[in-house]
Amino acid sequence: MARVAPTDADFYGRYVTAALAVAVMMLSSVPLAESAARGLRSNPAPPPLAHPRTLPYPRLEFPFEIAGSQYVPLVWSDIPGWDQDDHLAAFKTFRESCRPIVAQSSQAQDTRALGASLRDSCRSARAMDNADSAKARAFFEANFTPLRISRLGEGEGFVTGYYEPVIEGSRTQSEVYTVPVYRRPSNLFVRGYNQASPDLPNKGSVYRKIGRRKLVPYYDRAQIEDGAIEGRGLEICFLKSQTDLLFAQIQGSARIELDDGTTLRINYDSYNGYSFTPVGRILIDRGIIPREQMSMQKIREWMDANPDGADDVRRQNRSYIFFREVPLSDKDEAVGAQGIPLTPGRSIAVDKSLHVYGTPFFIEGELPIESERSKTPFRRLMIAQDTGSAIVGPARADLYFGAGVDAGKVAGRLKQNVRFVMLVPKSLDPEERAHKMPVPDPRPSEKIAKLFPQVAPAKSVSKDQKDVGPAPASAVAQAQTLAAPVPLPEARPASAPSRDPRRYRRSQ
């Protein structure tokens, strides 16, 4: 069949038809566009987060942190007795602590909370001359911020007392003076420290070196008393009894009145690595001395009257202290761990792993200063200048009362809860630094909480509860709502295996 050539009418007809089709499509798309625009207006895109976070959150530097402690910033008027203290006496003691602080030349980083922040305050204190009580108070208020500090979860701290005992002794061993006072042995080793270091830690493991490499725990008290290190030239002097030595070790220093008329001064140097066990606690637990009557004087009286029992009780405390001889006169006070003479009534021993020497603490409470039953108000600014193996924690202190029998009686009575206010240099003001801390993320919305309700677990009903009358209808309905079981998905229908013979036909 022959093809027919197209005419002009056919050409224009096809063009008009295509144009009409395009127009219809464009008109039909207008309602769709308008509908999409209305949807966008009613459901706008969520705004971007103001402060996008990355997970996990980066570690934040807290304004001020002491391990295991809690603190509350105060104003000076909130501290009972602050305006009544002798601030000049506290200032003089603080100024003595500033001598070694200002003289420090090492730039080693101190990981404790205060670090080297006391240097600026110490420079200001050293520059002050002719200070009186009013100027001393103004100095502390201008340079420090008060924080009430305590162990985490507790409201108060704890204080005991210590003193420097005066003991009779001799440079040579005899029938009267039989108990040796040992200096630090050369084979005592603490990891991370030189064996000759003058400042070994007062906590942690201590070893005995055997040969060049082998390390074993150091001898305990019983082994040393039985002669484990005798005959090695470690004897500084000799005392009359093990009780005298024990009290010197508990206090950390002693004045030895030698039989030749001279006086020997000894100070704490190191220990054998075992935790201190208070002998008073042992006597209380065994029912030997009632808790309310416990004091250092009671302990001494019982040990002097019961020498055999004293040996057993004393050896329960496996900790043993080694001393060093210090060149002090009879008029000088004992030297603390900071290396300066202590001030009776103003110096305290603290946990040196948490606190820096020279830190001022205002201690407020009631202490048995006048007698065993008295409650003498004690509100005094003290300076941290010493430490001890039994002084552990952020709000724990040992108050120094001087030397001699009278000081020992007062110190032996102290074991009270008190309140601690720590004076922090204003360069570390936690309130000021806290303004830079980021705000926590907001809590989840109520909508999310409704999508994931908490289901209360079913409680067993006791026999007594069965006799109680029926519960209100509202309570029953609420319990049924909370205890409604979560629906499980339906099981898959079991399907029989196919028996199509063609699937199992062997190929031939």
**Helix content estimate:** 25-40%
Roughly what fraction of the amino acids lie in strands? 15-25%
Q: Span between N and C termini?
A: 58 Å
- Radius of gyration (CA) equals 40 Å
Low-confidence stretches: 1-6, 463-468, 503-508
Tell me the structural class.
Answer: alpha+beta
Which word captures the global form? Answer: globular
Major β-sheet, in short?
A: 6 strands, mixed, barrel
Average predicted local confidence, pLDDT: 81
What's the total number of strands?
17
Number of helices: 14
Spatial arrangement of strands, main beta sheet: 3-16-13-15-14-17
Can you give a write-up of this model?
This protein is of the alpha+beta class. It has helices at 8-42, 87-103, 118-127, 133-143, 221-225, 242-251, 279-285, 296-305, 307-316, 405-413, 430-434, 446-451, 463-466, 473-482; strands at 69-73, 144-151, 157-164, 166-170, 179-182, 188-189, 207-210, 214-217, 235-239, 253-258, 263-271, 321-326, 347-349, 360-367, 376-386, 396-403, 415-425. A 6-stranded mixed β-barrel has the order 3-16-13-15-14-17. The chain has a 6-stranded mixed β-sheet with strand order 5-9-4-10-11-12, with helices on one face. Strands 6-7-8 form a 3-stranded antiparallel β-sheet, with no helix packed on it. A hairpin with an 8-residue loop joins β14 and β15 (376-386). α2 (87-103) crosses α3 (118-127), α2 (87-103) crosses α4 (133-143) and α8 packs across α9. The radius of gyration is 40 Å and the shape is globular. The model is unreliable at 1-6, 463-468 and 503-508 (pLDDT under 50).
